[in-house]
Structure formats: C-alpha cells, structure tokens
Write a structure and sequence with these properties.
The complex is a heterodimer of chains A (283) and B (345). Chain A is α/β, with parallel strands linked by helices and 283 residues long. Chain A contains ten helices and ten strands. The longest helix of chain A is centred in the middle third of the chain and has 14 residues. Chain A is globular, with a radius of gyration of 18 Å. The relative contact order of chain A is 0.19. Chain B folds into two domains: 96 residues, no CATH class; 233 residues, Orthogonal Bundle (MetI-like fold), CATH 1.10.3720. The chains are: A alpha/beta (283), B mainly alpha (345). Chains A and B meet through α2, α3 and α6 of A and α9 and α10 of B.
C-alpha cells in the first residue's frame, strides 16, 4: 500500500487552500509576531510566517539561531523547558494555539513531533510503540482497529516489511534508521494535522536519510510538515518552502531573515545573507 | 628498522604472582616461628612483594611497565584488604550459626525454653511482619515523593525537600526508634510496645532511602522519552505512569530491595519499640514482638546457665538474617534481569 504521490505542483506563493487532497487532515499554521524567551534570554524575535498545508517547510540556519526553539513553540513544547516563555500568536487554521482556554495537551494531539535522536519507548514492543499515542491518550479502540492502524502507520513509515514478523520485539532492538522510522510511525498513528521534525536525519546514514526524505514527500499528501535541518541538500531536495533563520551575534535573538519557496531561496534569494548561507560562504 | 619495540623482553607469565606468593609464604612461616603480630607481617609482605615486582620489572621491562605492575600489586592488595573482613565475617557466622541452623530453630519459638533447644520461629515471623509493614508503608510514600521531587517539584521548595531527605538518610536509627516511641506514647500512653510501632520506626529509616534511589533512577530516564510522550498528546501524569515509571522500574525495585536489606537488620529502634518476647505474636497491633536482630541481641545479652545454647541460637539468628538479605538481593537481581531496560541518552 502506498499513498498517492502528490502530483500538484508547489504553489507559487503562500496563500493556497488547505484542501488540495481529499480527507487530508493537514492544516495551515499562521505565525504572527512570535517572540520566544528562555527566562531573560530572548531566543527568537518577531517571526511572522505562514506554513502551508500539504507542503514541506524547511527551517535552515546556523546552530543556535532559534530554529529548533521556533519549531518547538509550534506545538507548545517550548514551554516545557523551565523559563520557556512565548509572546505573539500561532494559529492553527485560525485557532490560536496559545489561546487562554487552549489545553497544550490537545494542541500536541494535533501537532506531532519527530525528534533528532530516535526515542522509541524502551519498555514497549514495536507494536506498542506505534500504538502508544492511541493507548496512552485513552482513545480506546478494539484490537482489530488498533492492528489496522499500526499496520497502516508502519506501512506509511516504510517500516512494515522489515518488522511485520517481529512486532512483539522491543523497539530499541531496531537499527538507528529503523528506530527513527518507528518514531515517525508512532507520530502519524495518532493522525495529527501537522508533523514537526527536528533534524530527523542528522543521526542517520545516507540510506536511512534518503528513506526519510522520500517519506516526507509522501507524507505531505496528508500532513503539513515542518522540518529543521542543517543539510542544505536535504532542504533543497525535500522541501517546498524554506525559512532561513540567523542571529546577528552571540546573545542576540534569532530572526527570520527570509521565507520563500525553496526554489527561490536556493536559486535567487532576496537577501545576501541567505545567498551566503545556502551557497556555503557563511556559518 | 621499526621504531616499535616489538621484541621487548617481558616477565614470564608467573612473574607477577611469584613475589607476592613467596612473601606471603615467608610471612606465614614467620608468624608460626616468631611472635611478630600478623598485621605487621601482612603489611610487610605486601610492601616487599610490591618492591620486588617493581625492581624486577624495571630491570627486565623498563620504567613504564614497572609502574604498571606496581600499581596492579597495590590495587589488588587494597581489594584483598577490603574482602578479608567480609570473608572472615561470613565464615564466622556460617561456622557458628550452622550449629543451630536446624528444623527446630525454624519451627519452634523460645517459649518456656531454658537451656538448649527452642527456636526463633516467633522472631522470623516478627521480622517478616514488621519489615513487611514498613515496606508496604514506605514504598508508595517514597516513590511518590521521588516522583514529586523529580517530575513536578521546582525552585526553593524542591531544594529544601531534597535537603531534608538527605538529612533523613543520615538519621541515626535509634533516633527513629525514639521518634516512633514518643509518637505512640501520645496515643497509647507510656510504656506501650507493639509491632506497628517498630514498623513506623523502620519506615522513617526506609523512606529517605527509597526516595533517593527512586529519584536517581527517574533522573536516568532520558528527557527524550518524556518529550516523545508529550508530543503524542499524552498528559503529564500519564507520561509519568506509563512511560517514565516502567522505564525506571527495575532500578526502583533494586532500590527498594536495598532499603529493605538496610532495615531488616536494625536492632536499636526495635528494641525500644517492639521489646522482647519469647512466644509467637503475629499481630503487630497488640503487644510485644521480637524480630530476629532483637532475638539475637537478647540471646547474647541475657544468656542462661550454661550460656552456650543461647550463643548458638544468637549466631543462628545472625545467619538467618544474612540468608534473608541474600535472598532479597537475588530477587532484586532476577527482577533486574527480567524487567531491566536498556536506557540510553
């Protein structure tokens, strides 16, 4: 089973509709005047951007420029860090993620996340890892239903054929690349509307990296994907939009320098700093 | 020509063993022949062996490997020095305790026993009931306190609580006994003795150990697992119950076993709180009980005439305690092997 590959061309400019694929749960994210703090430290300053549904948006920039902090603010993981604080608004299809009545837990049910280091739950089998999101959030289902979701998620993450005969074995027995795909299966098993990926391939070999990039291209048919990466080729290959973050100096907040289609960022960026960075003359 | 000393000469394989063996043999011979103290001879033998190994190796192999051999001798000696008292203690307890380590000892009480015979069944029951009660009270309190400190606590309150837990870890056991005694005296009047009071005293000693060990195990659980759980939309309490605790389970169980082993041999607080008795009392809420350490103490402290059967029972009680502690350790190891998870960063 494979999802239909997206055939529609990348929209030329931000503002496209959400429903390019039927029954797709993907939602757009509108970020406005977002400022992020760790205690007194101003980590990210004045970010405004629109993240398109059914597209891959890559966040690039040198280390410490706030990409990961920005990513983690999208599903309210930033505030889990002691002293983490947010100003501004993040709207998921118009709904304010930071609204006063919004439960961060329900936000995270709609915006899933894949981390830099593969982190399957060590006490759980491969099956239970994939089913963890559904089991632990008490969205109870009968066994057959759960079986189907686990199989579908593992197939979407291109892991099913490798693990279908050993679903009861512990998830940490898999190789690094397989573990990361297991984590992706775990994330998409709860059917989020957005999937955030924080350097998902930085600890993987080139083959697993390619598998995960192919996977992103397939997944965007159903989800909105935001990925932080240090790998220019990866951003160029797999993303539709690219946001370049930068800092003006040590201790200064990170800012969004330029946000555009990936094609534009990599061929004809408006800002000289972006051109320096993507061409390797910088950072 | 190679710059590596491929053909460098080295001591024969028996080389590092011969001088210590010779020195020990000489020390034994001197101990038999003269009346020099055994300790002096032992230290002398170690120093002499180290000197000979170093000098020999330096001549044959050169300075660097000589230092290596010297340090090996010193570290091995230190290890032996640490193990000798343990082996000696185990040997003494087994040798003297096996005399009365028989069926009567485990089936009969000390009721109406004068002289030889009798057993410690009442004391074994006492130890199991009191330690069991203390564990049942301490483990939930300790684990939940550790969860608070590690997963929820913040700022000044957490720092103070951690400080007090540390202080409680070092509390002298007699103080715990006096605390329990004073507490029960408020409700039951002075001079009261009961097993539950002993369990309270042991809990005071156990809780900080359980808190500390559980906290350490929770710290080892990588934050990545908590974040992975949060990112799935799992609430915090559910993350703690279903992800963090299972990951740390084997270590927590080991910590609990260590805490039990630590208090199962407590004597002083139980002497105050449970008193001594020679007949069986399995009800911790009424009357005196006599746990094994107290039994050993009273047999040794107040022997009859002749005293030998009393001393033999005291040693057998000590051996029983060691067996219980070893059994607990084995259980902890089995649990660790069965449920232990490989936790990575």
């Amino acid at each position: 089973m494979s999802e239909p590959a997206p055939t529609a061309a990348v929209p030329a400019a931000p503002g496209g509709g959400a429903a390019t694929v039927d029954a797709s749960p993907a939602k757009a994210i509108d970020v406005r005047d977002l400022n992020l703090f760790y205690g007194a430290f101003h980590a990210v300053k004045d970010v405004t951007m629109r993240i398109e549904p059914n597209a891959v948006t890559a966040l690039i920039g040198s280390s410490g420029c706030g990409k990961s902090t920005f990513l983690r603010s999208l599903n309210r993981m930033h505030e889990l860090v002691p002293g983490g604080r947010v100003e501004g608004s993040v709207r998921l299809d118009g709904e304010d993620v930071y609204g006063p009545d919004v439960d961060p837990v329900s936000v995270r049910r709609q915006i899933g996340m894949v981390f830099q280091a593969p982190n399957p739950f060590p006490t759980m089998s491969i099956y239970d890892n994939v089913a963890a999101g559904l089991k632990l959030t008490r969205r109870r289902r009968d066994r057959a239903d759960l079986d189907e979701i686990v199989e579908r998620s593992l197939r979407r993450a291109h892991l099913w054929d490798e693990v279908k005969d050993r679903l009861d074995e512990p998830g940490i027995g898999l190789s690094g690349g397989q573990q990361q795909r297991l984590c992706i299966a775990r994330t998409i098993a709860v059917e989020p509307e957005v999937v955030l990926m924080d350097e998902p391939a930085s600890a993987l070999d080139p083959i697993s990296t390619l598998a995960i990039e192919d996977l992103m291209v397939e997944l965007k048919a159903r989800y909105t994907i935001v990925i932080v990466t240090h790998n220019m080729q990866q951003a160029g290959r797999a993303s539709d939009y690219t946001a370049f973050f930068n800092i003006s100096g040590v201790g200064e907040p990170g800012t969004l320098v330029e946000f555009d289609t990936t094609e534009k960022i990599f061929s004809n960026p408006s800002e000289p700093a972006t051109e320096d960075y993507v061409s390797g003359r910088f950072g | 020509m190679s710059t590596l000393d491929v053909m460098r000469p080295s001591l024969p394989s028996w080389g590092p063993w011969a001088p210590p063996a010779a020195a020990l043999a000489l020390a034994v011979a001197l101990a038999i022949a003269t009346d020099i103290a055994a300790g002096v001879l032992l230290v002398g033998a170690v120093v002499a062996a180290a000197a000979v190994v170093y000098a020999w190796s330096r001549v044959v192999e050169g300075g660097r490997r000589a230092v290596d051999r010297l340090v090996t001798v010193l570290v091995s000696s230190a290890f032996a020095l640490a193990v000798i008292p343990l082996v000696s203690l185990l040997w003494t307890v087994i040798a003297k305790g096996s005399e009365r380590f028989d069926w009567t000892f485990f089936s009969e009480t000390g009721r109406n026993v004068v002289g030889a015979g009798g057993g410690a069944w009442h004391a074994i029951v006492g130890t199991l009931v009191i330690t069991g009660l203390a564990t049942a009270a301490s483990v939930p309190i300790g684990i939940m306190a550790a969860i608070y400190l590690q997963e929820y606590g913040q700022g000044r309150l957490k720092r103070w609580l951690t400080f007090f837990v540390d202080v409680m870890t070092g509390i002298p056991s007699i103080v715990a006994g006096l605390f329990a005694f004073a507490l029960f005296a408020i409700f039951f009047g002075p001079g009261v003795r009961m097993g539950a009071m002993g369990a309270v005293a042991l809990s005071v000693l156990m809780i900080p150990i359980v808190v500390r060990s559980t906290e350490e195990m929770l710290k080892v659980v990588p934050d990545g697992l908590r974040e992975a759980s949060y990112a799935l939309g799992v609430p915090k309490w559910r993350t703690v119950v279903s992800v963090v605790l299972p990951t740390a389970l084997a270590g927590i169980v080991t910590g609990v076993m260590v805490a039990v082993a630590r208090v199962v041999g407590e004597t002083a607080p139980l002497l105050i709180t449970t008193g001594t008795i020679t007949s069986l009392n399995a009800n911790p809420l009424s009357g005196r009980m006599e746990p094994l350490p107290v039994y050993a103490y009273s047999q040794y402290k107040h022997p009859g005439v002749p005293p030998e059967p009393y001393f033999a029972r005291a040693w057998a009680a000590a051996l029983t305690l060691i067996v219980i502690v070893m059994a607990l350790n084995l259980v902890a190891r089995l649990i660790h092997r069965r449920f232990g998870t490989e936790v990575r960063g």
